[in-house]
Write a structure and sequence with these properties.
195 residues, mainly alpha, Ferritin, 7 helices, globular, binds fe (ii) ion
């Protein structure tokens, strides 16, 4: 029996998950800005029309993610972290500018690694969202993880076309795209039953 004023273990877990989700979304929100600025410099530095279009589309995806994550933060009653926001603007712009002088391969490898991390970031956010009772965000967070998976594939494929890139030991390849959603399927079933 729960005594008045006593907080249940379930409630503690929920609050912990919500805090973790909020912190991760603040990180992602600023990370998307840094990535978008960096990709802006990246596509502008490319002389290949298809490559420019591909990276430009990825920049747009990142701005879209930032809007979605911003809405989630707002619903959690959280603001973006001002320090992270300032840092993201500087890092993104510097990386974008460096693309004009660093050659072709380094920005492609850097972007691929970054995208690989982003997949995991949105998978973790999806897990926390479920744990804190925000199951309605599951689909949006998993879709963002899937789009990051597509971005990772784009940059990995580009690196693998390069004579030196082919010889490099690249970052670990993520599991199959389908595994992102498959890991959450039992939760979807539960959610549908409850909803
Ligand atoms: Fe993104
Ligand atoms: Fe991305």
């Amino acid at each position: 029996m729960q005594v008045q004023g006593e907080v249940s273990a379930h409630e503690i877990d929920r609050v912990t998950a919500e805090r973790s989700l909020g912190a991760l979304l603040q990180l992602a929100y600023s990370g998307e800005k840094a990535a978008a600025y960096a990709y802006r410099g990246h596509w502008r530095s490319s002389s290949d029309a298809a490559e420019r279009a591909g990276i430009r589309a990825i920049e747009e995806d990142e701005w879209h993610h930032r809007r979605l994550v911003g809405e989630m933060l707002d619903e959690l009653g959280l603001a973006p972290d001002p320090k992270r926001e300032r840092r993201a603007a500087v890092i993104g712009r510097v990386l974008g500018a460096l693309c004009h002088v660093s050659g072709w391969l380094a920005p492609m490898v850097g972007a691929g690694k970054l995208e690989s991390r982003n997949i995991h970031e949105y998978e973790s956010a999806a897990r926390y969202a479920v744990d804190c009772g925000r199951g309605e965000w599951l689909d949006a967070l998993l879709t963002m993880a899937e789009v990051e998976w597509d971005h990772e594939r784009f940059f990995r494929s580009a690196v693998e076309t390069h004579w030196l890139g082919k010889r490099l030991c690249l970052w670990p390849a993520p599991p199959a795209r389908e595994s992102i959603r498959a890991a959450f399927e039992p939760l979807d079933v539960v959610g549908a039953a409850l909803g």
